[in-house]
Each structure stands twice: as structure tokens, then as C-alpha cells.
Amino acid sequence: MTRDRGSRVAVDGGVFREVLGLWPTGVSIVTTVADGTRHGMTASSVSSVSADPPLISVCVNRSQQTHRLVAGSGVFAVSILGRDQTRLGRVFAGMEPQVRDRFADGLWKTCGTGAPVLADAVAWLDCTVEHAYPGGDHTIFVGRVQSAARGRAVAPLLYHSRSWGQIADPLPESVSVADVGLADALARRWVAPETVEHLTSVVRAAGARTRIDIKSAPPGAPPAQAAHVSALVRDPCDITEALSRGAGIVEISPTGGDATALAARAQEHGLDIVVRVPHAFAVGSADRVRAAVDEALGLGCAELCLEEGSEAASPLHIRTVVQDAVVRARPTPVRVALREHNGLGLANALTAMKSGVRMFDTTLGGVDGRLSTEGLLYLAARLDISSVTDPTAIARAARELENLWGARRPLGPDPDRPDH
């Protein structure tokens, strides 16, 4: 450290920058226009100042060309970058010197002030300079927001310790599971309907939601907790069958018949709707999933489920798709249905948890290729994540299934067996 002329202790410049680098911030592009020429720079020093009137601030180094242009034109705009716009942030930070036109990429437009805004950013604000205060080697420009809008529903880009990153949600406090494959798997093996009903009832009693097979489930009075019973429906007649078998939730797919008509019929009967998006984690599925999320929200769904298909998903792809869907669907919760491909199932589940998912579709014993209910709950318990579903009761149900199935189940702890 050194002492300045006022005998105050001045921190070393390198240490100062290193310490501030530990403060995570969002990443924005600050743009302006002067004499018809557009200019912009990447900035992290953007902050809100006031709600009434709407004011924000941005700090610009006095040596930057952007400083001269903002001071001269009296206008600037701020575009908040999404997690997939790292390269654009690097370009406007001057880190891609081979790029001659910084505005060549991205969807740019102008609003009231004439400063360019990035239409496909997370959000943007168009401002006129209200005040300009000296701040050492920077000027603090305070802008009055003339217009603002949200752009794409995507997680924001972050900057921390000289690295670009994105939000990784902490582990959830609790998770819930819905067993969606057991009844169908047993029915396909010609197990007696009363046995299917018994085993699904055991799973439901343990606190898990269960999907019934409307073709084989016995009709009768609705159970006391219809909210814990779902049915997969493909046509309006299926909804009638689901009601007669005590389901309080119907699951539909945008690709399986007239989803709009099914949703309307379900809502007429007071049923909650889960919209399922098949093959959500296939390579190149991002745009399709975004469109499906928007369609599902338009149907008035209570939940949205992203399904892994025959193509194995990787944790990185799970993270990308899930984070986008969670942000886009809020406040509608997103659940995932993962499969046990090449041992990646629980790794993908952990990634989904860290990306904002709190609900999982599973199958007892993993007998249909989905993650096993007991395996998912075991993972949650090892991570100190609670669940309304009793893992011990589920493990006992899995043991019963194992005896019925005639083979040892693939995953999960068993409190009755010494080798677990």
C-alpha cells in the first residue's frame, strides 16, 4: 500500500482490481449514437438508481471513445446479455480484434433516443443523460429511462473473476417425485389389475404421485387425494376415463392429438394439466423446446415436463435446456423425466436440481428405463435434500416389485438388505 498526498492509505491498484473482480455482476452492452454512427462497449458497472423517476447509472472510463460519444450525444442504451451471448460480450469488450463491425451479430434496433438496443438480449433500457458526475478516472452517467422491455426469456450472462459464466441455482431444499411408468410397465407384463392397483397404491401412500393406466385401472370412487393421481390422455374420451378412475391431473403432449381441445376439456372438469415435451434434450432441440414451452403456457398448464428420449442427454445439455425452460416458464414449475442412459441418469438429475428443477418423473425400480424412484430419492437424501415421499417406504415397495418382477432392481437403497 502507498500513502497519497492527504496521508490516506491507498490500496495497490492490482489488489483493488482483483478484489472487485470477486464481485459477480451481470454483463451489459452500453451503446450510443453520434452523427449517425453507432458505438458500444461491454460494461458490468450498470446499476439502478431510482424507480420514480426511473433512473439507472453506468460508469464509463474517460479514456473510452464511448465516453466522448455519450457525453456529446446525451443518450445511451443498456442491453443485458443472455448466458449464450458471451461472444457478443467479448466483441464489444475489444477481445475479438479481428471483428471490424461489432454490430454485425445480434438483432439490433433503435428506439426513441436513436441509440441501438439488442432486441434478443435478456432486456434493454433506452436512456437520456440526466446527470454526469466525476468519479475518478470514470464518469458516472445517470440516465433517465425513456423506454425498456424484456427480450428473450433466457438466463443472464455473469462475469466473475475474469471469467464468463451463468447462474447455477443452489441445490433445492426439497424435491418431489411422480411415478409415471410403474402401472404401464406392469400392465405390459400382463400383471393382474388388482396387483397393479395394490403396488401403485403403496407408492402413492409413500407420498409419491402416481400415473394410472386408464385402460386397466379399475373404475371406482375417486380417491381421497385426487391431486396425487394422474393419467396420460390422448383424446377427450380419455379424460372421462381418467375422471372415473379418480385422477385429478391429466398429462397431455402437444404432439399427441388436439392439445388445445384436450386442455379445454380438462379445465372444464377442474383437472390440472401437465404438458409433456418429448425428446426435449435431443441435439438441436433448443428452439423446439422454447416453442413448446410457450405453447404449453398458452394451454394453461399447471406444470411443464421435459422428457428425455432415446437419445442420451449430457449434463451440459441438460443444464442449457433446463435453465432456459425454467426462466421462460416462470412461475409455472418445470419437471423433468430422465432416463438411465449409460449411467448418466443421476448425474443428469443432479444437474437438473442445480438448474432449478424440483420435480422429477420416475418409475419404481427403473423398470421402463426411467430413473428409478428409489434411486432419485437416495440421491436426494445423500445431498440432504428432503422429500415428502418416504424413501424407506419406497425402498420396501421396490423390494416387493423385485419379487414380482423376478429380477433384482437396478438402483436404490434397501433398509432390509445388509449389502446396502
UniProtKB/TrEMBL annotation:
InterPro entries: Aldolase_TIM, Flavin_Rdtase-like_dom, NADH-dep_flavin_reductase, Split_barrel_FMN-bd. Pfam families: Flavin_Reduct. Residues 20-166 form the Flavin reductase like domain. GO terms for molecular function: FMN binding; riboflavin reductase (NADPH) activity. Keywords: Oxidoreductase. Signal peptide: none annotated. It comes from the Bacteria. PANTHER family: FLAVIN REDUCTASE, FMN REDUCTASE (NADH) RUTF. This is Flavin reductase.
